[in-house]
Amino acid sequence: MPPAVPSPVLLVLAGPAGSGKTTLCERLIASEPDFARVITATTRPPRPGETNGQDYHFLTPGQFDAKLAAGEFLEWAWVHQKHRYGTLASAVLGPLAAGRSLVINVDVQGVAHFRHAAAGNPLLAHALVTVFITVPPAELRRRLTARGENPAEIERRMTTAERELPEAGKFDHCVESRTREDDFAALLRIVRPARS
After folding, report:
1. If you ran DSSP here, which 8-state letter would residue 4 be given?
2. Considering the entire predicted model, what is its pTM?
3. β-strands 41-42, 83-88: how paired?
4. Residue spans per domain, the chain
């Protein structure tokens, strides 16, 4: 009898700035070969060295509007009221249907949109696993300060974190951030059973 093929997982991470979400996503992709990053779409122009379709799907505002009107996004948002970012359904559903596991980090509003989309899509519903990374406020402030954020930006991010924290109970899993190694071990304890 052939070994069971692992079920694909859409791992969605959320948490405050400074919680280590991006680092966790990068480590997961590097250590688990069947995981890939969801390539999201943006209206911001490419930075030097960035490639369309590899780093982001770079869209003009008009292209973004057209895809939005056609219902092609699972979630989207304005970032700093400057550019829009979003997750195209095709960037998620195609790889999942092909058996590929995916990881993405978004804000809590984005996670709510993923949950809503999953309610009407059996593939997404079966694959979706949501994880909230929480950080004690004093530690979060220390991390943001160590990153060199200016005081006004730190306060803005702390206010956002306070607003997002009550949403943690809506997630499948909650990880209290400690060290990079502890956090990654906790993530693997969530991911590996989810794929069976």
Report:
1. P
2. 0.89
3. antiparallel
4. 10-194
Closest CA to 67 of 94, 85, 47, 54: 85
- The DSSP 8-state label assigned to residue 2 in this structure reads P
Residue with tokens 């993405």: 104
Q: How many whole angstroms separate alpha carbon 44 and alpha carbon 84?
A: 7
Whole-number Å distance between alpha carbons of 180 and 190: 16
CATH of domain 10-194: 3.40.50.300
pLDDT tens sequence across 162-172 = 999 889 999 99
Residue closest to 26 by CA, chosen among 85, 79, 103 = 103
DSSP 3-state of 57: strand
Helix axes 137-146, 151-164, angle to 10 degrees: 150
What lies within 8 Å, CB to CB, of 68 at 6+ separation is 76, 86
* pLDDT, position 194: 82
Helix, strand, or coil (residue 18): coil
- Cβ atoms of 12 and 6 within 8 Å: the answer is no
